[in-house]
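=== Structure Prediction Worksheet ===
Name of assembly: unnamed complex
Input type: mixed (protein and possibly other molecules)
Chain count: two
Listed entries:
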Amino acid sequence: MTTERPKILTDKTHIPGIETFDVYRKNGGYSAVEKALKTMTPDEVVEEVKKSGVRGRGGAGFPMGMKWSFLAKPEGVPRYLVCNGDESEPGTFKDHWLMKTIPHLLIEGMIVSSYALGANTSYIYVRGELMYVVRILEKAIAEAKAAGFLGKNILGSGYDLELYVQPGGGAYICGEETALLESLEGKRGNPRNKPPFPAVKGLYQCPTVVNNVESIATTSWIVNNGGDAYAAIGIGRSTGTKLISASGHLKKPGVYEIPLGLPVQEFIYSDEWCGGIRDGHHLKAVVAGGSSVPILPAAMLLKTANGEDRLMSYESLSDGGFATGTMMGSGGFIAMDETACVVKNTWNFSRFYHHESCGQCSPCREGTGWMEKVLHRIEHGHGSMHDIDLLVDVAKKIEGNTICPLGDAAAWPVASAIRHFRDEFEWHITHPQEATRPGAIFKGHMELV
Amino acid sequence: MKVTIDNITIEVEPGTTILQAARKIGPEVAPPAMCYYEPLKASGGKCRACLVKVTAGSEKDPRPMPKLVPSCITQVQDGMIVENTVNEQVLETRKGIVEFLLLNHPLDCPICDQAGECHLQDFSFQHGVQQTRYEEERRTFEKQDLGPNIQLHMTRCILCYRCVFTADQITGKRVHGVLNRGDHAEISTYIEKAIDNDFSGNVIDVCPVGALTDKTYRFKNRVWFTKPVDAHCDCEKCSGKVTLWYRGDEVIRVTARKNQWGEVLEFICNTCRFERKNTSDWTIEGPTKVARHSVISANKYGANKIVPEFARRLAASQYKDVHEGRDTSQLNIKQLPEERFKQLIPPAGESAVAGIRSIQNWAEDK
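=== Predicted Assembly ===
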């Protein structure tokens, strides 16, 4: 019944002991390193990645090959590759799973990518809460080094690479690339003003590429099989596969590798994937790409404004802009059934952004706290009608006016929740006693699927 | 390099920022700056008060920039066209920034030593709205002493990071920085230790609000009752060029000299600032130039004869509103009844009359 799905990141993850070097190597691991270092020039590797059309998996979806080609290459200045493993977006847990399950895949990707970019020192910045993953990675690096895949003169090619793992300090903001670089330099993790971009002045003021774990892990497959083979998977400009961390009221939540272009309907309801909404309940809303992206009501998620089926791809999910669309984001797919309270959820997200704002620029520092307090009031039955418009206005004042995207990330969930679920906010204000009752379910006019 | 700001074109050096170019044109088009401070390296880009709209990126690439850009750190390109005071989106955003900055600000101006020379006061007066929509609790902190002469009142802080950059600049070690994050962030020294440096007093001068105050001056006076005088002395540590603030014959405060943007010209040492408080310590050069619209110049130097700029502008704008939609082409402005003008500014003795005259002159010029 199930057709053969392309597996790029998860083809070996079921093998017991894959986290050790020997098992990984026996199953064809590190062949990309051999191929790249022995038969390809760095530029050829970059060319393959460009051809593959793989887009950054951290959230922004910027083509990775293009990002690599922007890297400045001045003489006598070291270049760095930094892997962003600071996955802290609520609803996203794919990198965590990938790093702990198959650490060598990331290390192999790091070697290949560093070789392509000409970096002799590379860093993996791992979220601070995941200390055990840091230990797994460090063990894996030691194994790879002992086998001659890291260190000086790798496989006799004359290429040197040192790989370091750096645990973060436990801040969401350090997942923003320039804040991550600041943190890596040992400073307070405040995002930098751009320009200059990291490709010109990054880590220690040297040209730097920052890529997501999943993006880097993909490069070894691209080197092995070629960029064209990768581009053949997927749909349009969304090539390849994507790890989706599905959570919420689904029958089978978890991390799935999907070929991009899979219909959303199939992803939620097919037994091959999430298996549908838990018994006796209906889908109400979905946050499709991690907490930062706009929330969508079920009907709008499954069908675009033109009535076409919505697909799991960068273009299709953002079809219709923010009025009727959302974003692919980092792939944190949070499904909510009718028992979920959108107001409470929005407040919860807001609370998170309030807590995680770095406090550097004023709209985000003050605005996130304001929104959280107003939402808290509405959620607990003390809101008034003008609070809703106030929230919309505050979100508008934050959006686009901050140094880094955290301001946008804080504003979008609030703005979209009010855009699509205004009734529910109004119900909280007009019927506070009913709405604040434990287990209260909003029974407004709403299309459940 | 040519850059056009609010329809005024100016020639500038490559590497100039939009803010610097706008300041060259004049204060009317210069965006406000709450965190940017020219003498401090790496300052700027944080408060977002100076956001402007770039409607054409450069001669070569005349596409507009998608977002508003911070003018203090964005360098001009040849042929760039910038909109500051003429752009509705910019002004609207600026109103938002004022509101954000004031959210957690205690607005204790009546008891704040900075009142009268506070950048936040000026900024909110010029760009803000008169009411707040914030009903929630504001954050508060305990007062702290940073050494014997400086007091930190964190509640008033707007986290512009200027003092952090100053401390970085005057000391080799990182002794002063920001703790925590978000709206619960606070500036602090290393475990409440004093900034032990001869130039630490300069953090008072760079602070745009009353968060860092001079303990030798706290609650002594209001700034508009004092007379600023430029003076110098032979100091072995610093340039010795200062401004003395007199109340009667008494020097009650010593600060560094500032330019018209409120930026320190030369940092002064703590001895000059905190200890030399006798006229005999100094050679007086003459009265400090104070901007005419500043409240500091009120009641002095015949300034009571001059109506502050803002009242004139306010009156003029209201005057215009009254006649909107009416055919005023036949109207001779001189024949308008004087009562009309009297309504515009509350009469207060002679100065009001002078004010009315100045409005009449202004309207005639128009």
